[in-house]
Amino acid sequence: MVAVSAVGFVRTVLGDVAPGELGVCDAHDHLFLRSPQLPGQELEDASAARAELAAFRSVGGGGVVQWTPYGMGRRVADLPSLSRATGVHVVCATGLHQAAHYGRELLAGLRGRLAEVFVAELTEGVGPSGVRAGVIKVAGGFHGLDAHARWTMTAAAEAHRATGAPIAVHLELGTGALDVLDLLCGELGVEPHRVILGHLNRSPDLVVQRQAADAGAYLAFDGPSRANHATDWRMPDGVRALAEAGFGDRLLLGGDTVVAGARSVDGGPGMPYLLRRVGPRLAVELGEELVGRVFRENPARAFAVDWH
Fold first, then answer.
1. How far apart (Å, rounded) are the C-alpha atoms in residues 114 and 262?
2. Is the pLDDT confidence value at 83 over 60?
3. Structure-derived torsion over alpha carbons of residues 139, 145, 146, 148, reported in degrees to the nearest 10
4. CATH class of the structural domain 22-302
5. How does the average pLDDT of the chain come out, rounded?
6. Which of 11, 19, 234, 255 counts the most CB atoms within 10 A of its CB?
7. What ranges do the domains of the chain cover?
8. What is the pLDDT of residue 307?
9. Nearest-CA neighbor of 141 among 103, 193, 100, 201?
10. Mean local confidence (pLDDT), 281-303
11. How many angstroms separate the CA atoms of 253 and 29, rounded?
């Protein structure tokens, strides 16, 4: 497959930067996150978020893409100061997660204007902060797409066409990748290389992974160190198989820290684990050159905003 060149810019919370400036990138993570599905485990401490970013920077990190979408405690106004203080580029998301993460009133208030909200956050800024989002986050369901997923993905496709922003997709337990691509790319006309599939490694089906890569989408192998998701011990097999099949330019790596206890500064693996353990392990099996591309060149292309 021919690699897609990095065009346009990456929209960070401090402004637009050339894709090559993103540096070593954690392609899927969270500095702040709140959900009724995770009571008492919220990511809300700004001091801890700053310490986590600094820890990531200390092991060579240059950029983090926060996938926390609309209505889930993004704390967008805090992101610029954290990015400035640590020297780490931060990309903020708009978008909408599964319905279970929201109250009925919030969802009802978005009916008929969801794409408009996404576009406004990408172009004008999130609320009074003026910080503009750089990626659209949506979510599929377990082995399929419900009405909520179709609604949010339809709005995401409309916002993508208006802004050129990439679409990042939460795959529930790693399933439903082909259904997502059928909808976004088949029915809604989004080019596959503008779609980033998250959590595909949680369902370690090498056939589906290859089909998704062959379609042209980016595959984010994220959430390492979670034994129940088979992310660490099966990740090298999936990455190697895809690389050997010619899809090394489709791969991304992310930490996906979603609860406070998973931060490195709170005793968990956190963002630095990607560079301290995951990267070196993959380099032993796949070579440093490929792993370097996965951390640098691939996210520079995947998260570039191609403004129309």
1. 32
2. yes
3. 30
4. alpha beta
5. 93
6. 255
7. 22-302
8. 64
9. 100
10. 94
11. 10
SS3 labels along the chain: CCCCCCCCEEEECCEEECHHHHCCEEEEECCCECCCCCCCCCECCHHHHHHHHHHHHHCCCCEEEECCCCCCCCCHHHHHHHHHHHCCEEECEEECCCHHHCCHHHHHHHCCCHHHHHHHHHHCCCHHHCCCCCEEEEECECCECCHHHHHHHHHHHHHHHHHCCCEEEECHHHCCHHHHHHHHHHHCCCCHHHEEEECHHHCCCHHHHHHHHHHCCEEEEECCCCHHHCHHHHHHHHHHHHHHCCCHHHEEEECCCCCHHHCHHHCCCCCHHHHHHHHHHHHHHHCHHHHHHHHCHHHHHHCCECCC
For tokens 């660490």, the residue is: 232
Residue with tokens 């008929």: 112
Residue 202's pLDDT band (cuts 50, 70, 90): confident
Contacts 24+ apart (CB under 8 A), 280-286: 281/236, 282/235, 282/236, 282/239, 285/236, 285/240, 286/236, 286/239, 286/240, 286/243
C-alpha neighbours within 13 Å on the C-beta side of residue 298: 28
State which amino acid sits at residue 204.
Answer: P
Q: Angle at the Cα of 298 (from 296 to 303), degrees rounded to 5? A: 100
pTM of the predicted model as reported, rounded to 2 decimal places: 0.95
Query: Cα–Cα distance between 199 and 177 in angstroms, integer?
Result: 10
Rounded Cα distance, 57 and 274, in Å: 12
Question: ∠ at Cα 239 (97, 305), nearest 5°?
Answer: 50
Q: Tell me the C-alpha distance between 97 and 12, whole Å.
A: 21
